Amino acid sequence: MSPEDPRTARTKARLRESILAECGDRPLGEVSVSAVVRRAGVGRATFYLHYEDLPALAVDACADVVHAAVDALHAWQTEPGAQAPARPPAALAAFLAGAAAHAALYRTLLLPGGGGPLGERLHRELRARARAEREAAGAPHAGLVASAVAATFTGVLADWLHDSVPGSPAELADHLWPLLLALHRTGSRPAP
Predict the structure, then answer these.
(1) Choosing a second label site near 51 at 20 to 30 A (CA), which of 118, 129, 170, 175?
(2) How far apart are CA 157 and CA 15, in angstroms?
């Protein structure tokens, strides 16, 4: 894959910043392409050169949340073979606090239960990372456990952002972490 042209990268960055700023003022459904391009200082044609529509731009703008989530769940893995801590990594609560700050936008893209374009992307990337790490460690049932972890995290995060799961970021991290660890451990037991 060839590197992205620096001008294209700058334009996309301005558009991503613009939509995040616009969605800080109102829901995505009330944001217009005109407002986004005006704030970004680019033309409407330039917008459509890079994005099909506003939801596509919004998902791209939220890609960092996907990477942050994946990194937060794996922050404890400082070396191969490291054992997961009993307490959630501080990065998990920090990630959840950051997600809460943009909850209005994320709720548009991450539907209850974990669906929607952001949910699909989060699930796909988290599943891929978990599977690769389990395979590298020689853990059994890599695909099964990776899917379960990704689905659990994505679904709980979505439901929390939609106010179906109560708690502060720290409380959610404290409750979610043991669930994820249990999934990892369940998949590691030998079959009877």
Answers:
(1) 129
(2) 26
User: Are 88 and 173 contacting, i.e. CB atoms less than 8 angstroms apart?
Assistant: yes
Integer Cα distance of 174 and 15 in angstroms: 36
Report CA-CA distances (Å) from 78 to 4, 72, 74, 113: 30, 12, 9, 31
- Cα separation, 163 vs 31, in Å, equals 23
User: CA–CA separation, 5 vs 62, rounded Å?
Assistant: 21
User: pLDDT tens track of the chain, all 192 residues?
Assistant: 567 789 999 999 999 999 988 887 788 889 999 999 999 999 999 999 999 999 999 989 888 788 888 888 887 776 666 677 889 988 899 999 989 988 888 888 899 999 988 899 999 999 999 899 888 888 899 999 999 999 999 999 999 999 999 999 999 999 999 999 898 887 565 544
Give residue 56's Cα distance to chain centre. Answer: 15
- Rounded to whole angstroms, the Cα distance separating 34 from 28 reads 13
Burial (0-12, 13-18, 19+ Cβ within 10 Å), 21 = middle
